[in-house]
From TrEMBL:
Residues 1-31 are annotated as: Disordered. It comes from Thlaspi arvense. It comes from the Eukaryota. Component of the Mediator complex, a coactivator involved in the regulated transcription of nearly all RNA polymerase II-dependent genes. Mediator functions as a bridge to convey information from gene-specific regulatory proteins to the basal RNA polymerase II transcription machinery. This is Mediator of RNA polymerase II transcription subunit 7. Keywords: Activator, Coiled coil, Nucleus, Transcription, Transcription regulation. It holds the Pfam family Med7. Residues 137-164 form a coiled coil.
Length: 168
């Protein structure tokens, strides 16, 4: 019985048979996906929107203003989280049957912290890109300076070589 080491090519390879003679004969790529699509059984969207906490069924523990002081709110939620963890330890020692309520409160605080941090992601991405571009500009300026320095050194060596030849 014969066995192939590789599977046969997919049937759409025939669409590219004349590509070497005429590169324009290849079909156009499919258009980008827009809206909702399914991948591995999950529904995803191409819109990059952070869903609100209410949409996720989580109570929002910080002000709903558009001008949120992220630093202040993150610190406040962090302190609240620490307090709730200490209370959870106390509840586990004193009243173990009531731990579920404390776990739910801690989960809500964590979700609020994550939501605040995720709302800062676009700013972080912009700042990272600015930093990368500034670093690239600096590297290119240094490369230009290095090229100029080497050119001047080569010109000096050539000048010295011509002076030495003329002196002989």
């Amino acid at each position: 019985m014969a066995a192939a080491t590789y599977p046969p090519p997919p049937p759409y390879h025939r669409l590219y048979k004349d590509y070497s003679e005429n590169p324009n004969s290849a079909p156009e790529p499919p258009p980008p996906i827009e809206g909702i699509y399914v991948c591995f059984g999950g529904n995803y969207t191409t819109e990059d929107v952070l869903p609100s906490l209410e949409e996720q069924g989580v109570p929002q523990l910080y002000p709903k203003d558009s001008n949120v002081d992220y630093k202040k709110e993150l610190r406040s939620l962090n302190r609240e989280l620490q307090l709730h963890i200490l209370e959870l330890a106390d509840v586990l020692v004193e009243r173990p049957s009531q731990y579920a309520k404390r776990i739910g409160e801690i989960s809500s605080i964590f979700k609020n912290l994550h939501h605040l941090l995720n709302s800062l992601r676009p700013h972080q991405a912009r700042a990272t890109l600015i930093h990368i571009m500034e670093h690239q500009i600096l590297q290119r300026k240094q490369a230009v300076e290095d090229i100029k320095r080497r050119r001047e050194e080569a010109q000096r060596l050539l000048k010295d070589a011509f002076v030495t030849l003329d002196g002989q």
